[in-house]
Amino acid sequence: MSGDIDIVITWVDGGDKAWLAEKARYAPLAADADDRPLRYRDWGLLRYLFRGIESFAPWARNVYLVTHGHLPPRLNLSHPRLRVARHSDFMPGEYLPTFSSHPIEWHLHRLPGLAEQFVYFNDDMFLTRRAKPSDFFVNGLPRDVAILNAVAPKDGFSFIAANNIRAVNARHSKRETLKAHRGKWFRLRYGAQLYRTFALLPWQDFTGFIDTHQPLPYLKSAFAEAWSENGDIIRKTCQNKFRGEGDVSIWLVRYNQLCKGAFCPARYRRGKAYWISSPQDAEAAARGIARQKYLTVCVNDGVPEADFARARAVVGSAFEKILPNVSAFETGEQPP
Fold first, then answer.
1. Is residue 140 part of a domain?
2. Which of 94, 199, 218, 328 has the fewest beta carbons under 10 Å from its own?
3. Tens-place pLDDT, residues 236-247
4. What is the pTM of this model?
């Protein structure tokens, strides 16, 4: 297998007027559709994702920016490693347009020329210190953590996770999985989180998995396998214009990898998700980013509109501190 590793980023400009007008044409929404503005709000941090890739992951072969059609300001389209892919470049027309990340993600393996090994970043995920290829892949297998968890459906997000678990249990025996791959499931490097697995051993079926909310390594072939095994429910998800409680997400690909033992165990604490719902949360995230304690971070948006500008400025300042230099993926002068 080739050692090439690509990076894939999905991005949307939630303030694009043409995109907003097109989205509005598909209203009214289904009762369970998630169309909150924070699903699409742009923090203006994409430049730091590209700067982090250039500074901390120079080994990446190509960087794919997946977009509805709009482009971020000052993107250097002539960069030799940049591949801009519009949804229509790799998704069947029957699923377009879409305003949900799930249909887009379910077709990422169809990106033209994509390497078998790729690392998937949402646009709120960033590298904050130097990474090695072996942080994501070892001997052609993705690095991951296999830790049991309990998912209790209580909102749209957890309903989707439960749908994934239901699909896993239809194809994988928990008992046989843990027996066949015990060396990958019972690892001291998982730290205190290992207690979750032991606590959930009495349950016959899988009740959930720990999700780290970090950039994730995937194999194209694992996506193809998921489509082959779960095509009906994936196609139903792809038909939805907006995220809904009946969806399955590409975490199902990851869960299948865990159950098949098709991964190499990683440390649990290599990344950090910051859930920002207040200026105080933003300040805590900024401190962690500035200290570069973690390999990767996720800046999850839950900030009320009244506090958004302040939170964005605080987090942006921290990234500017660790990544002040304009990257070759940018054309020069940066927006304020």
1. yes
2. 94
3. 999 999 988 899
4. 0.93
